[in-house]
Amino acid sequence: MKKLYFITFLLLSFLCLRAQVAESPERIIGNLMESLSENEIDLNGQSQIFDELLQLYESPINLNSARIEDLEKLIFLSDIQIQAIVEYISKIGPLQSKYQLQAVGGLSQLDIERLMMFTKLESIESEAVYKNRLDGQVLLRNQFNLEKAKGYIPDSMATRYLGNRHHSYAKFQLQYGENFFGGLVMDKDPGEETLPIDFTSGYLMYESKKLIKTMIVGDFHANFGQGVALWTGTSMGKTSEPLRIRKRGQGFKKYSSANENGFLRGAAITFAHKTAELSLFISKKKRDADLEYNPDSTHVIVNSMPETGYHRTPSEKSKKNTLGQSAYGANLNYRFKNISLSAGGFFQAYDADSIAVKAMYQRTAQQKVKNTQYWLSYQYGTGKVLAFGELSINGSNKGAIINGLQFKPANNVSLALLHRYFSIHYYSPWVNALSENSLPGGESGFYLGMSIFPVSKLNISGYVDVFKTNWLKYNIDKPSQGYDVSIRADYIFNPNFKLYVRYREKDKYKNQNIDGAPDYPIVVSNTKKIRLHTDIMANQNWALQMRVEKSFYKEENQNNTYGTLAYMGLKYATSTGRLNCWLRYLVFDTEDYDTRLYTYENDLLYNFYTPAFQGEGSRAYFILSYEMLNNLKIWLKAGRTSYTDRDKISTGLQTIDGNNRTDLKMQMQFKF
């Protein structure tokens, strides 16, 4: 605890410092990553939207010729802000300076600073044309834990992993001109055999502004409407950007992540003519499953469909790619002035006869061997109002509906409203809408998000989400209700200093596990978290980052528990930007799993790491990136987590004897 008090004292002491504050892609992504982690979303598996943001940072778009769909890739901008920017540029003509953006209503100084990181200002006539230019990159990564877990130690009496402890990853990307793209990803998880490579994903893509807007062969995402029926990409949900509730479905997108489940494999094409678009796709692939055959092998039952992607043991490997999954579908979109309407549907089937249902909460909204979905979605937008929604019905005539509204009642106030309702029997294999539960069947709720600038230097943002279910959910054996509240205040004291304070509270029902009790009593649990965070930049080379966070957990008939986390981070960058170093020291003290705390770590390019800290101990890490040549860059990272409350880490084959875990990561990027 003395370490916690020491770092807290340092944080409070530095509040008086004056320093230049600069936004960075890492900070923008980090804030969203921590929000997603607290919702227990797989970051590296659903990181497509962040990949696009990093690509825009390296190759900014021309703001003077950007379309709405180009600006929608900037996840920190609200839809109303995007509309206001486009309307402003179309009204006054091409921008000559970023300072002209100050006249756009609803854009703060921070918004403009972020926007200019991913865009540039050029005349439309002077835009570069890359008709015969070939660009690409090769990314190679390896990471492993220095201490060997039980699964890597030979033991004739126990099962062990089939492969070594290295996590190896390779990514290849090509772009020819402005229209042709290709990519390949290869990934081997720790414990898996080196050869053959466990997971390989690739695509070839053509994009243009002509009749064929998009054509993809290989692996791809399909994102339509508001995620009620078909959305295989990243789902933002409830994050630190409370106005970002409308899903920006851009149809088909290339897939370049390492998640082994969240994608389609086959072919997709979108035809565009004037104000209409027709999208068609077909997919057929294999996925992991535990299959059971009856004695005469004429009836196939799916007992489970693991989504971890791990094939480290004979048991895990026996489930690899055993179940065929096929799908085909279409979507028709029509735009008329400020109105956009879409209608579509898909059919999806597994190569099996039945799927076992083993949990009571899955008996209403459950996976089926064959699924059919139909949907209608709409969007209407003006300068200060945006309305959107989606209605979906499955093959059993059970439906779900989402309606949302974003508007600006005043220049310094923006609001977002969303209502959702899912029938108790509603299920889609690719549902990815804003909801409290991953299986939202039977859920309804109302969401209110806000962003207010009461004074020029202060931004207050947050959301309130009230929800209820009329059926059982995972770890809740009765219909229930709850709420989720988050509020954050960002204050820029002067151009030299910035900090924010965030408070979050969630109240919901859960099963209470009491030893010896014949049944699980259903009780109310309440989690509160409060965070104080600041960033300081002493000069163009040195930056300091500090945080203190506290968690409180309360459950009926149980003692209250608490958790605390604090860290100090230091960044150094040379004036040329070729060398960057990050150093962080963190201490944590949490009493149990319910008081765990998350924090985003600077990591290798395209690799996202947001650990959850539970127990008592500390963590330190160091990361270095160096641009050796104009087209060659390397990263090195070393981190060590030390626990003071245990002599073993993790369980099962992941058990490490000792109280330290050291992770090493190396990466090389070559551009051409």
Question: Can you walk through the features of this model?
Answer:
- The protein is mainly β.
- Among the domains are: 22-127, no CATH class; 199-410, no CATH class.
- The chain is built from seven helices and 34 strands.
- The chain has a 24-stranded antiparallel beta barrel. Strands 11-12-15 form a three-stranded mixed sheet, with no helix packed on it. It has a two-stranded parallel ribbon with strand order 1-2.
- The longest helix has 14 residues, at 25-38.
- It is globular, with a radius of gyration of 25 Å.
- It starts with a helix and ends with a strand.
- 37% of the residues are buried.
Features:
672 residues, mainly beta, 24-stranded antiparallel barrel, three-stranded mixed β-sheet, 7 helices, 34 strands, 47% strand
Topology of helices and strands:
Blueprint: H1 2-13, H2 25-38, H3 48-58, E1 61-62, H4 68-71, H5 79-92, H6 109-118, E2 119-120, E3 134-145, E4 167-176, E5 180-188, E6 199-207, E7 212-223, E8 251-254, E9 264-273, E10 276-287, E11 290-293, E12 300-304, H7 314-317, E13 323-336, E14 339-350, E15 354-355, E16 370-381, E17 385-394, E18 399-410, E19 413-422, E20 443-455, E21 458-469, E22 480-494, E23 497-511, E24 522-537, E25 542-555, E26 561-573, E27 579-590, E28 597-598, E29 612-613, E30 616-629, E31 632-643, E32 648-649, E33 656-657, E34 660-671
Pfam family, one: HHH_3
Signal peptide: 1-19
Protein name: Helix-hairpin-helix motif-containing protein
Biggest sheet, open or closed, and with what strands and sense? 24 strands, antiparallel, barrel
Q: What is the mean pLDDT?
A: 88
The residue fraction in helices comes out at 10-25%
Whole-number radius of gyration? Answer: 25 Å
